C-alpha cells in the first residue's frame, strides 16, 4: 500500500513538472539575471530602456518630487509657522508634482515652482532633489489574476499589467530657473499649460496665487526600474543615453499596455510630433 502511494506521488510530481512551464527564479523578479543565462532572458538594451523612459516622461506629466527637510539651523520664518516636528529634520518627503516634457531635445522636465511649496523650500535650503515617474496604461486600471490569462499579453511584452511589473524611474539632478527672457519661454509656458490647463491659476504674475516661476530639472542621473527582472532592466542608465535619445526613438518605443496603433513613423504622425514640439 505504501509502495503504491509513493509511486503515485512520484508520478504526480513528474506530471506536474512536465506541465508547468519553466519560470525565472524568484530572486530575478526584482533584479536582473546573471549574464550566463544567455538567450533565456531577452532584456531590452540600455538604449531601448532609455527610449522607453523618455517616452514615459513625455506621456505621464505627473510625478513624485522627492526632497528632504532641512535641519533646525536652516529653518526660516515659514518653517516655524508650519510647526514642523524637530525630529523630521533630514527626513525625505515625496509629494505629487506637475511636470511637462517641454524641452525634448534635452530630456530635462519643466516644473512650475510655487515658491512656498515644500519641495522648493527644501531645495532652496540645501536639499537634493529627484523626480520619480511611473507608467500606468490607461486601458487597464485594475489587475486580478482571476481575470488574466496568457492570451492577454502584448506580443513581445509578456507582462500582466500589475503595477509591480510596469516601468518606473527616478531622475536625479538640480534645478535651474527658466528665465522669462529665454527665447523659448512662451513656447515652454504654452506647452506646460497644454499638459496642465488648471495651472493657469498659479502662473507667474497671477496676483490671486502665491509667487511662482518655471524651473527645469537638469538630469544628472537616471535610475531605471523597467519591470520584473527577467524581462526588463533594473539599473542606472548612462545619462548620455538619456540625453541623446531622439524623438523618433522615443516615439517608436513600445510600452506595456500602450494602445496599439497602425505602423507609422514619427514624422508621418503629425499630431504627435507637433504636440511634442
Topology:
Elements: H1 2-19, H2 46-60, E1 62-68, H3 77-81, E2 92-98, E3 110-114, H4 118-124, E4 129-134, E5 168-177, H5 185-195, E6 212-225, E7 234-237, H6 239-244, H7 247-252, H8 270-276
Antiparallel strand pairs: 1-2, 1-4, 3-6, 4-5, 5-6, 6-7
Protein name: CREG-like beta-barrel domain-containing protein
Signal peptide: 1-16
Domain CREG-like beta-barrel: 44-242
CATH domain class name: Mainly Beta
- In terms of structural class, how would the helical and strand content be classed? alpha+beta
End-to-end distance: 77 Å
- The percent range for strand residues is 15-25%
Radius of gyration: 24 Å
Mean pLDDT: 79
Broad shape = globular
Characterize the structure shown.
With 277 residues, this protein is an alpha+beta fold. The protein has a single domain (27-136, 161-258, 265-276), classed as Electron Transport, Fmn-binding Protein, Chain A (Pnp Oxidase, Chain A). It contains 8 helices and 7 strands, in the order H-H-E-H-E-E-H-E-E-H-E-E-H-H-H. Strands 1, 2, 3, 4, 5, 6 and 7 form a 7-stranded antiparallel sheet that branches. The protein is globular and about 50 Å long. 26% of the residues are buried. The model is unreliable at 9-27, 152-158 and 262-273 (pLDDT under 50).
Amino acid at each position: 500500500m505504501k509502495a503504491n502511494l509513493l509511486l503515485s506521488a512520484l508520478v504526480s510530481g513528474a506530471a506536474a513538472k512536465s506541465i508547468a512551464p519553466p519560470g525565472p527564479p524568484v530572486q530575478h523578479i526584482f533584479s536582473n539575471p546573471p549574464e550566463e543565462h544567455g538567450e533565456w532572458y531577452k532584456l531590452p538594451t540600455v538604449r531601448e530602456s532609455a527610449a522607453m523612459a523618455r517616452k514615459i516622461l513625455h506621456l505621464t506629466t505627473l510625478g513624485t518630487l522627492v526632497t528632504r527637510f532641512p535641519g533646525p539651523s536652516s529653518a526660516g520664518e515659514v518653517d516655524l509657522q508650519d510647526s514642523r516636528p524637530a525630529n523630521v529634520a533630514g527626513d525625505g518627503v515625496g509629494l505629487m508634482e506637475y511636470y511637462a516634457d517641454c524641452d525634448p531635445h534635452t530630456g530635462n522636465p519643466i516644473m512650475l515652482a510655487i515658491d512656498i511649496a515644500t519641495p522648493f523650500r527644501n531645495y532652496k535650503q540645501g536639499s537634493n532633489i529627484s523626480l520619480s515617474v511611473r507608467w500606468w496604461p490607461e486601458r487597464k486600471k485594475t489587475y486580478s489574476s482571476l481575470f488574466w490569462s496568457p492570451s492577454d499579453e502584448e506580443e513581445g511584452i509578456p507582462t500582466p499589467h500589475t503595477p509591480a511589473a510596469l516601468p518606473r524611474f527616478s531622475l536625479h539632478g538640480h534645478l535651474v530657473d527658466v528665465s522669462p527672457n529665454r527665447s523659448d519661454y512662451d513656447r515652454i509656458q504654452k506647452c506646460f499649460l497644454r499638459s496642465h490647463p488648471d495651472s493657469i491659476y498659479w502662473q507667474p504674475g497671477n496676483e490671486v496665487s502665491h509667487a511662482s516661476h518655471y524651473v527645469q530639472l537638469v538630469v544628472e542621473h537616471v535610475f531605471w526600474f523597467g519591470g520584473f527582472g527577467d524581462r526588463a532592466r533594473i539599473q542606472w542608465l548612462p545619462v548620455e543615453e538619456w540625453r541623446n535619445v531622439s524623438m523618433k526613438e522615443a516615439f517608436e518605443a513600445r510600452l506595456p499596455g500602450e494602445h496599439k496603433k497602425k505602423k507609422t513613423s514619427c514624422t508621418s504622425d503629425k499630431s504627435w510630433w507637433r504636440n511634442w514640439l
